[in-house]
Amino acid sequence: MPDGESPATVRIRDGRIASIEAYESEAPNVEDLGDAVLMPGLVDTHVHLNEPGRTEWEGFATGTAAARAGGFTTLIDMPLNSSPVTTSAEALSSKRLASEGQLSVDVGFYGGLVPGNADRMGELIDAGVRGIKAFLCHSGIGEFPNATENDLRQAMPVLAERGVPLLAHAELASEDVPAMADPRKYADYLATRPPSFERDAIALLIRLCRETGCRTHIVHLADAGCLPMLAEAKNQGLPITVETCPHYLAFAAENIPDGFTLAKCAPPVRDEGNRRALWDALQSGLIDMVVSDHSPCPPDMKSLEEGSFEKAWGGISSLQLGLSIIWKMAQEAGLGLRDVAAWMGACPAQLVGVPFGIEPGHPAHLFAFDPDAVWAPFPDDLLHRHKLTPYLGMEMRGRVLRTYVHGNPELLAGQLV
Asked: Where would I find the Amidohydrolase-related domain in this sequence (predicted)?
């Protein structure tokens, strides 16, 4: 609520918040949530739903059901891992058609920048994408090659003129890295994607942001060594925002066992000192938001038996669990639910221009939350397609009791945004 936390009666009409009134336990036509906290639905601006074309990896039905169970009411889907990739208005139309009748939450889409399609940025923006995603290194998907500096220079002035953000996977790969001597060793995998990859990419993006004025968003920041240059850029007033993910805040390289490929992601999870520095930067506001980068795949792509970091798909599934992961850490640090709602709701919503908050006139995107529940997730708890996540069995804090999308507590209430 704009004025903070207090007992209240929230009235909903036609899928929107009609009014916020004084709390009345005996009021007619009111559902009393007891001691639960009614929170604004969260917004995850970095998910891979993979449909059409790779629905066996995830899909709209399973991904949005998992999001809803985790308190998220709006998702923005990345342009790769589906087939076709979302690099044209036609591909965006295919994705929208594939989503029909499957959405438990609201879903919007990004377009993609790849070599040769910089002249299609206006077309994608006109078709309604919420931003444009580019990789500065190989994406892992052959149909979505990395954008070059020249591609960025062509596209960013168009995005600046239209007020649409560029979202960048900020790793610039070099050939001067060691091969994995033992593909099972996490340390060997970590050495193949050193911090210099992120630092070189972010230095380039800051330079292009300064030259073009394009809103520039750094996705899944993993290297805390990038923070000083990002702080300087922000202090200079450049339109740069930064996200990190639960896995970079919850895990440290020293604690990832060899062969534990469920923890493989790119950029990789780094050491404990790095983890603490990211957490500090989130608390200070230098890192703007926390999003999932929910990037699932079928079990056979995770090399679970062999435990090869070289062969395993790099992606972590946490869409349903992110709130409970971050709330546990925030509570231990003496922070409150308003901090978590800012990191996982208000700031992502602002990035892509969707409403957020419990305010009259806003969509009735809400969830009831028990902040004191202590639990550990197991496969049967998870609603995403494959029950693979490094968080299985870990202690969580806080649990979503019920989610309302456009005021509807039932599934399949989502819309395209």
From this structure: 37-408
